[in-house]
Amino acid sequence: MTDNTNMAHQISRISICVALGISLATASVLPKDSQVSNSTKQWTFDEIPASTDLIWYPCFWNYSCAMLDVPLDHSKPNGTRASVPLIMIAAQSNSTDGEYQGMLLTNPGGPGNAGVDFLLEDGYLVLLPVVGKNYDIVAFDPRGMGRSIPLADCSSSSSSKLRRRNFGLSGPELDTFYWTEEFQTALQFGAECNATMGGSGEAGPHMSTAVLAADMLSIVDAFAKTERGQDVSSSSSLNYWGFSYGSFIGETFASMYPDRVGRFAIDGVVDPEDYISGTELMDIYLEDAVIDSFFTYCHLAGPSLCEFYTGNSSEDIRHRFENIFLPLNASYALAQNWTNATTIQQSLEFIKSTVRLTAYTPIESYPILATQLVAYEATLSNLTVAAIEAASNIGTTTPNITGTVPQLTEWFIGAFCGEIPSVYGNTYEELKPHIDTIEEESFLTGEIWATTLVLCSGWPITASWRYAGPFGGDTKNPILFISNTLDPATPIENSQRWAPRFKDAQILTIEAIGHTSMAANNSCANEKIYRFFQTGNLPGRDSRCAVEAGPFGVTPERSVIIEKDDC
């Protein structure tokens, strides 16, 4: 894949993000203090004037939208301005959930994911049933992303590719030529983006997590001034549910503004010190372990439910899986000057990327993966990238949600790389020890994160404001940490390490596979999270929710979804 559209598609796939779903068309109530509450017009964001007051406009038929005016640089409150787009599912009048609880802000993760699209796609279906109908559920587009102004956009720029090994999974890796090409592409892409979005008045320097935390504080302050905000005594505190990278935003906010923490849940917990180091990305070592569970689930499901079923054991299914990769030895093909060496390399990248993504949402993705793997096998005798791509698209759908926007490559790179300036300018030789370490963590994911480091080596735009710790503190209210026992991107050890750093924080452990509680869809966990947001009461120390039905409707032994050290 060489054009920028495909590059953006590929890099968007590596973002640590939550699963997408299609929201239900359920009516909501426009906030009573909106200045256009009687309007039947459905406003678009480019029609909504930015304001330092939180003024809501009807949008997307079931939502309300606003554009909050904030300083582009929070250290210069009288300087250039920026506009933060917000979207809301308004609390329902006379909700059976009880009295009005105020605003709950949410972030879907990434970095690089637009919050507006998240609420459009998952708000009614996923968030509302867990949070309750007596909250205003609000999401926002982070700086430079989605519909924010200024927008990070260098979409005319060059291209890239992506994608390595552990937990018993093995197979061919990519050639040194791949890395040489990646470094060249990174330098070109970074230079071109710097020219379009790197100035002090552009989005590039203002996409950091610290800026997002300050923006969230501005949102809370604006809400507290509204008539609706004055209905709740705790309106000056931030109620928040952050997923994946959104947990890092939460950790940053709680560390910077501990006295403003309300009912605060971070879900799929990022290690903040690892994140800001850039080169110590050790959160991926369970990626292959999660994929390994596919073999067990497929075996338990049997041939009638799992199309990739074979033999008499999960090991037989694993061997069948690994045999797909054997002909895709890109290094050997390049060394032998095979005419289809490039096709082999691109196919290997594509298959790894597609398989990797299923680890984030196994319940919904494993049945699709079984069909895709059968299709991959069929392509090997007459290998083409087009055939591999077609097999990867089997069973997948793109949410048909009016108003969503395509994700741009630079949203992820700008937010992530801008916070790790120490990587910029590093050569392949300088980064190779880190690349090797990351690759050893996961056969499927190592190359993807290693490629991210390479992209950062060519990214010259540095965040103007970067919070690097300390993380932790005496928060106004205790934080709820939420982790699955087998999460491919944010292992439970992160919660175990960081919850003690925040006063009286507690951990909710879900015996499940997948990334964040959304992937687990565990009824016990959903009930505990609901009670937390409704009452502020934590579920209790060492709170744990037992394994429930997983992929293919199978409920496995606990050992399948729990790390050996956690049994």
From TrEMBL:
Gene3D superfamilies referenced in this protein's UniProt entry, alphabetically: alpha/beta hydrolase
Domain spans labelled AB hydrolase-1: 105-272
Protein name: Peptidase S33 tripeptidyl aminopeptidase-like C-terminal domain-containing protein
InterPro entries (alphabetical): AB_hydrolase_1, AB_hydrolase_fold, Pept_S33_TAP-like_C, Serine_prot/Carboxylest_S33
Keywords: Hydrolase, Signal
Signal sequence range: 1-27
Domain Peptidase S33 tripeptidyl aminopeptidase-like C-terminal stretches: 445-545
Similarity-based family: Belongs to the peptidase S33 family.
GO molecular function: hydrolase activity
Organism: Botrytis byssoidea
Source domain of life: Eukaryota
